[in-house]
């Protein structure tokens, strides 16, 4: 049990885009952590044991070195930024910080929530084609607005030429878009920025298809 | 045009819960602002003029005194906290701050997005009963988890005995829950905290039914 005392823990699911955001941030900050798999498909997030840690029953969940539990990806990432300011994920200046949070929240509060597994199940049951159609519709719609936002803010990355929290929210969203077969042609900025980011080790190493809980058949086709 | 130069501007819609969050924060901080109505029902958020200001086409949008535009309620509120730290909306201590952000984000990223007007229209068209059923389902489901979270954090308010950003996200959510006729009996903590908050001027004055763009017939029954 020594590792539990010395390392923080991330409860994650390989395909959860919100978990991926946190994996990127941890890698970015160079924080070593223990990965614990919560299999969303089998319903592990609703087990009695897990609900004691995270009463809201979702991933990701971060357990600090002192054993404090933090839910919600952006709350975790802001926490990491506060305890370890080196390699900042937010720029200096209140206005720039607000712009970065805006982009992250467009993804976290507008685009992503509609493609949570619980929503897909409710809307389409086991019908994978219907799930994909729903996911495609909302992602495409969200990307239209996001592309326009980025036209006002982007340089090499979402805000200018430094990597920020916004980029850590963008890349996992593209992974979902690929699952829903979203036509990316109308979104050249989103595409260019995420392609650039995906050449960086922090984004590559944390890819869903490189996680221990990723099924082997996906691992082969992943990257 | 003098007011534009001296006061920040909030683009808001009376019934938008995300706009209400920001109205509470502005009132809490004692920041005077100009209220500009964006009528979501008539589609004003998609007008060419508004899209220039906010390419994502949603409310709220905050224009700083220097004319910088910030979208997304939580980004605006974090900005207000950074530029005016008096009457803090986040506690001291990284862990407590994370807990407050967690609660706010459960509301902003999990519960609220499913009841955005665009989603309601897509799912139920003009069928108000079907809209209400959908809103009721997702709010009730979300409140189950939120109530359990609050069991671990609440005092008088969402986190202990000081008002935080989490409380500013909670109250507007209850307003929506009432619209969907959510049975609040299973949620005694949510109910007790929001009732306490609604006795305070910052929450009362910013209520949807007290905004200039609220139709008169609602104003009469509102509070």
From TrEMBL, chains A, B:
Pfam families in the cross-refs: GST_N
BP GO terms, sorted: glutathione metabolic process; L-phenylalanine catabolic process
UniProt domain GST N-terminal: residue ranges: 6-88
One GO MF term attached to the UniProt entry: maleylacetoacetate isomerase activity
Signal peptide region: none
Keyword vocabulary terms for this entry: Isomerase
Domain GST C-terminal: 93-216
Cellular component GO terms held in the UniProt record: mitochondrion
Top-level taxon in the UniProt lineage: Eukaryota
Record keyword Isomerase present: yes
PANTHER family: MALEYLACETOACETATE ISOMERASE
Family: Belongs to the GST superfamily. Zeta family.
Annotated NCBIfam families: maiA
Name of this chain's protein: Maleylacetoacetate isomerase-like protein
Organism: Absidia repens
């Amino acid at each position: 049990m020594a590792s539990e005392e010395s390392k923080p823990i991330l409860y994650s699911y390989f395909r959860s885009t919100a978990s991926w955001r946190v994996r990127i941030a941890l890698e970015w900050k160079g924080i070593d952590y223990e990965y614990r798999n919560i299999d969303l498909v089998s319903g592990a997030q609703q087990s009695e044991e897990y609900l004691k840690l995270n009463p809201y029953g979702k991933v990701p969940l971060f357990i600090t070195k002192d054993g404090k539990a933090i839910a919600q990806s952006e709350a975790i990432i802001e926490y990491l930024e506060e305890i370890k300011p080196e390699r900042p994920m937010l720029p200096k200046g209140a206005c720039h910080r607000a712009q970065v949070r805006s982009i992250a929240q467009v993804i976290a509060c507008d685009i992503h929530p509609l493609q949570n597994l619980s929503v897909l199940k409710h809307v389409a049951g086991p019908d994978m084609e219907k799930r994909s159609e729903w996911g495609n519709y909302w992602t495409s719609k969200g990307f239209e607005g996001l592309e326009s936002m980025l036209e006002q803010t982007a340089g090499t990355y979402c805000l200018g030429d430094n990597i920020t929290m916004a980029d850590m929210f963008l890349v996992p969203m593209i992974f979902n878009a690929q699952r829903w077969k979203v036509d990316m042609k109308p979104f050249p900025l989103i595409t260019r920025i995420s392609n650039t980011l995906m050449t960086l080790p922090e984004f590559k190493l944390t890819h869903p298809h490189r996680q221990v809980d990723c099924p082997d058949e996906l691992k082969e086709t992943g990257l």
